[in-house]
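Example protein
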Amino acid sequence: MTSAATSDLIRIADRNPSITGAEIAAELSPPPQFATASFESYRPDPDFPSQQAALDRLNEFAGAWRAAQRPGGFFSRKRPARIELPGVYLDGGFGVGKTHLLASLWHVAHGPKYFGTFIEYTALVGALGYQKALEALRGAKLICIDEFELDDPGDTMLMTRFLGELMASGTRVAATSNTPPNALGEGRFAAADFLREIQGLSSNFETLRIDGLDYRRRDTDGRAETVESDDQVDRTATALAARGHRVSLDDFDALIAHLATVHPSKYIKLIDGVEILALRGVHSLHDQSAALRLVAFIDRVYDAEVPIVASGLPLDEVFDADMLAGGYRKKYLRAMSRMTALTTGQLPPHE
């Protein structure tokens, strides 16, 4: 590449973003691909009746919530109707529509309301401190938590206390599962472990089980695409940049090393303004910490709908056999599914 071409490209490994608690709170809304998600646009798979059942139940939940919040009229003098359980937990495998349903509920709800991943909420508490974060979200009508984590007991119990205080003040909470260690593909044991971890808070949640197949694999051959060489990645990135696209170009090793220096809450800032992500020299990972950081990064790339061009090993093969047989199997499978979609251009209408 010429120096002029290189200057037109972004290098993620050179970015060292900062993020404030106010910025995190301001971003607590559904990612772009779910900006118009609705119950009507969710397409349940007829082979898995639990999808339709979850859709119907969330419609009821939303309807009761709206009725309870409707202002004016004779009934405004009465105590609002109470939903039997103020929390709902969507438990199921990846690619069955949990995030789409969660975003649909968020769009129906009255504000103030917030939508974010578990990592974003823990980052908010870390940035503002517990009490200030609590005050920032107090009064919310609905809080949606995508990919509730059970990997870190400390963070789990922090969020348990945090949500307990918010729910005690009238906030309703909806969450999707990110299955715990050794809960494989479909996430069969996520609900039980979630309820155990949150102890007393569990009585406030109704669990909705959603079965099904990963929709991202329905329209592809199930493999991530790769280009033939690093030089081809360079040429592709340069040509796209010359046409006015904002393209990042990094060596895979440099990206992985850089992710270790940036808190996951800031990963979204790493790709700020990036329209296409190019990677050279993808190879298998054998360090689980590095692999989990890549999973968190790919989640943000996927949310931002940034396609990937890569050389070397196909991205859906970066996690070694020991990882895929271990406790974080489901996280890796979800990331593999997302990287397949990002490299094949199969960005879906719902998750």
Remarks:
- The first helix runs from residue 3 to 7.
- DSSP finds 14 helices and eight strands in the chain.
